[in-house]
Amino acid sequence: MFIDEYISGVAPVKGKILLVDDQVVNIKILHQLLQDDYDIFMARDGQQAIDMCKKVNPDIVLLDIEMPMMNGFDVCAHLKNDPDTEDIAIIFVSGHFDEEKEVKGFQLGAVDFIHKPINPVITKTRVKNQIMLKSQTDLLRTIALLDALTGVANRRKFEQTLPICWLQCARDKHPLTIIMLDIDFFKHFNDNYGHAEGDRCLRIVAQKIQDTVNRPYDLVARYGGEEFICILPNTDAIGGTYVAQQIVDSILSLKITHENSDVSDFVTISAGVATITPRGDSSYQDLVKAADKQLYLSKDRGRNRVIG
Ligand code: GH3
Ligand code: MG
Ligand code: MG
Ligand code: MG
Ligand code: MG
């Protein structure tokens, strides 16, 4: 998906709010106030609140402080300590103004406070402001990791993802494969058809690679100008070479005319594949270097091919 589509695609999504209070009457008041503008979820105690956060990933939690068993502060601390829930905005709903409690709430990571009895205008405005902030932050986070031209992940996303995959594969003793890809004679393509056509070609090629590499935990990223890189966790050398060959074949099958290529009448891509089961004496940088070396060999041995 391209960034413009992404932005227009996410804009109309309704915010999700989780209401947490041990008193049903309090939940009812908030529910009535917010139900027209947001998707509302409810929890009656702390543990339920945590479970709901994991399940529905709300944008905001309106969190009562005084609750039996687990109070609001404990719930907040718990949510902020879990990477899966740490980005959820928490607004405390407290009985009356108490400076000490408010300070504690903010220190635990809450974004705002609302006091009972609920004032409709204040509550709606505070919720709206936080929802706006949250959706803008989410959007920026997403955009920051996408390549603007092609819509696939960018180099930053690749650099974030590789160490995580490396550790996971090391822990599980699973092989990890990297595929490096580079479009053949792309300089000639630009020279012949112009930079705008070159950009269009890059988009089409990127989307084709993305469509070909489609397991949910694989990553396709634009690595540089006309270079792409794939991370394939839990994939051995045979599997990695197979995927790389599928990519190479699928790019040729696009039949994008390239008169000035020395390889074919159409745009082609070269691939280098490297696989390792991560251990202490190896590094992911070495794995990338190995894939790059194989790509170099692929270029050297005629392009439009896989060397693994
Ligand atoms: P090889 O087969 O050896 O890879 O040859 P090549 O011509 O593809 O390699 P080279 O590194 O000489 O040229 C890469 C070209 O990619 C040059 C550059 O103009 C083009 N390129 C890089 N980024 C972009 C981009 O964002 N848009 C367009 N249109 N072209 C780009
Ligand atoms: Mg209460
Ligand atoms: Mg290149
Ligand atoms: Mg080059
Ligand atoms: Mg190239």
Give a written overview of the molecule.
Helix 8 crosses helix 9 (195-212) and helix 9 packs across helix 10. The strands form two sheets. The chain has a five-stranded parallel β-sheet with strand order 2-1-3-4-5, sandwiched between helices. A five-stranded mixed β-sheet has the order 7-8-6-9-10. The longest helix is centred in the middle third of the chain and has 25 residues, at 120-144. The protein is elongated, with a radius of gyration of 25 Å. The model has no long low-confidence stretch (mean pLDDT 94). It contains eleven helices and ten strands. With 308 residues, it is of the alpha/beta class. It starts with a helix and ends with a strand. The protein binds 3'-deoxy-guanosine-5'-triphosphate and magnesium ion (4 copies). One magnesium ion binds next to loops. The site of 3'-deoxy-guanosine-5'-triphosphate has 17 residues, from strand 6, helix 8 and helix 9.
